[in-house]
């Protein structure tokens, strides 16, 4: 019966002892050998490739890099396409490994999530170069509200690709046919959404399933989820009246069956998107989402200025992306000079920003040319109103919202989205969202101020 | 078996005059045997050192470092701080609870499936048994990503061949199907089909090792096929069942890829730290706390090693050989 035991598993006691002793000896060796390692700081000597540069971009930004390669044949570029999932973690993981290894960083890249700038510029990863001097002229071309996400502790550490404030989108054809009036306040929007959902079941007045959803509603209300007080202190309080009114709004929309729990990037969203009648959304939704992705017919959608909260005089809106270009601080000489050239190109050059970009350029001097080009395509139902809203919306983005090491959008998709998909109330998901937000912020080492109850 | 037979003959039973020559020859034989043993063991030992002992040593050293923080980016010696960080993390218990839920669903199905199907295959002799063994093995050949992609299609109500079942169950999108509540069942299904084929082949190998005489004796005693399977085959393959339980338990504890990728398919609506290994990964690559990640891996090692040893001794995995 001895054959029933796998021999290759069973070893004699003597052999086991030998193996154990050898193991201990090697472990002791390993302990001694590794005792000096362990630092994760990103500090290392700057290198110069002699001119070749390595660029990492997400899929929608490949044409930007390609336009640079075409415009600058004298600069050799190694182009890598990276995972562009908003709220994804792969990029962050790669950078943690580069810092462990002390090499491997790209010279410039497009961050898939704006939150990425928090870790990329933070002291632990310490990747981004200070562009304040090297790109001073370019930075001057930005509206301070547009470049604000790149201003970290007095330094400009990235360049904004496009301005991405939320405007209020609506389906003009649907509104005209059914005689609805476009809302001007968030409260009117909630009431009308319920009315439309009752009169036209299946019509959708908002998306809550993607990582931008809290930006669309909570940021637009001034809810302190990302109120950075210092490098280690953050103000979070979901009991704040600004958060509570956003919660009431979402509850009304949800109970009125006016929301889709899908995210705008979900594979199924293209079908649901055909039934989108109104809601807050970024300026890039127009060309990128409605026109190119969801293929909503021309002459249907129009944008107006963001909504106001009742009792307030100016509109309040959030911001959805408007991607950030970052540059490495690990390079010098010709390599750094060429990378600066690349940064300047993707932020300002009409070959990318006017001819190819789907979003309103962040860099002011090329905005009007981009608008002129977009107008020529005559996609929106009311082009003049739409583009006027695009330009005005930037000024209505609520401040006191920084990109943090914790990812508010990611926490939202893990807590609120599944609850709404399962048909649960906003109220039940809100508590979980709040608890997770506080836990995550603390796990990153932030001291949370005014956390409420 | 052969080792025991050789060692069972005591030297004292030989004639005294022949002892010195015999002894020398035996010593030389033992040396040759030892050399052979070490030669055979060497590749395994090297792998054990490179992929096992050294990483464990490295993890131990790393876990005793202090984690760099935004205020203090430089690391240093931190004692057991990283273990305290791990144990007191708000996700620590949840991740073990999650994996426990998966195990509760998956392991019994897996073990009953392995043993039941292996016994059926073994009982079906000839060409039919061979074909069945091949059919059972096919899902096992779809390892890793291929198995995952297959399941993504299966779980998407708008594409799946069982989409009508999902839609009747009230699921219209993949986000609805791949929810936290359904995850233990989805993972159990994925792991079952990925592993079952290989394990049937292994356990069937154990069944093939049982001498024919035993089955003949059982038949002569009047045992039917069911009684032979239950009273003869099952007790004899106990070590293999123990081994299957051990390896599947260890695999289950290290679950990472499936929940990680399912989260991406479900638009980020699953927790990033569903399993303990995902939590360890998050410590390293989200929180930049490599000491905590190392501490988490040491904790997992201790847990799986303890459970492993318990199973080894309970199932007599090694004991059988020394009787």
Automatic annotation (TrEMBL), chain B:
Gene3D superfamilies: MetI-like. The keyword Transmembrane applies. CDD domains: TM_PBP2. The chain crosses the membrane at residues 36-61, 99-122, 134-154, 185-207, 240-257, 290-313. GO terms for biological process: transmembrane transport. Coiled coil: none annotated. Keywords: Cell membrane, Membrane, Transmembrane, Transmembrane helix, Transport. Residues 1-30 are annotated as: Disordered. InterPro entries: MetI-like, MetI-like_sf, UgpAE/MalFG_permease. GO terms for cellular component: plasma membrane. Pfam families: BPD_transp_1 (PF00528). It is a multi-pass membrane protein. Residues 1-12 have a biased composition (Basic and acidic residues). Residues 98-311 form the ABC transmembrane type-1 domain. It is found in: Cell membrane. Its main location: membrane. PANTHER family: BLL4140 PROTEIN (PTHR43227:SF11). Belongs to the binding-protein-dependent transport system permease family. This is ABC transporter permease. It comes from Subtercola boreus.
